[in-house]
Design a protein that fits this description.
Strand content: 25-35%
Structural class: alpha+beta
Shape: elongated
Number of helices: 4
Helix content: 25-40%
CATH topology of the largest domain: Mago nashi protein
Low-confidence stretches: 18-30
Order of helices and strands: HEEEEHHEEEH
Largest sheet: 7 strands, antiparallel
CATH class of the largest domain: Alpha Beta
Number of strands: 7
Length: about 150
């Protein structure tokens, strides 16, 4: 009787462990869900690019009613993810802008937001075309992906 009870308990425990491993793989996929949002604006002008692994959606007005969509080139997406790994996300929100021409309406305001799974990282405003040095390459990559046809 003890042997039978031990065998049944062992079988149940091993089955539960295997099923738990299968559900953990579904919850934590290897590829993170990453979305880059770059927007630049001033009085009377607004443009916002949403870039994910599959699509680039560009909003052309403040109300986000006019937009364009296009597919992402896989090589560009890989380059963007490589550049993302070089950014210290803990410092990201505190990066200082190298110039402040946007305060006088001489250039557009720029802002980069990075969403990784359910976490959002938002940069401080900077002059469009002159981002902080540590994110200059990723901003350039996003604009290149978004504006090239």
């Amino acid at each position: 009787m003890k042997t039978l009870l031990t065998f049944v308990c062992f079988t149940l425990l091993s089955t539960q462990c295997v099923s738990k491993k299968a559900t953990n793989k579904q919850v934590e996929p290897n590829a993170k869900e990453v979305v880059f949002i770059y927007r630049y604006y001033t009085r009377g002008f607004y443009k916002e690019h949403h870039v994910n692994q599959e699509k680039i959606k560009t909003f052309l007005d403040y109300s986000k009613t006019k937009f364009t969509e296009k597919d992402v080139i896989p090589m560009d997406w890989t380059n963007a993810l490589d550049l993302l790994t070089k950014i210290d996300l803990k410092e990201f929100e505190n990066l200082e802008a190298p110039s402040s021409l946007r305060h006088t309406d001489r250039v557009q305001h720029g802002e980069l937001t990075i969403k990784i799974n359910n976490t959002t990282f938002r940069s401080r405003n900077f002059d469009h075309g002159n981002p902080p040095k540590k994110i200059k390459s990723i901003v350039g990559q996003i604009l290149s992906m978004s504006e090239n046809d």
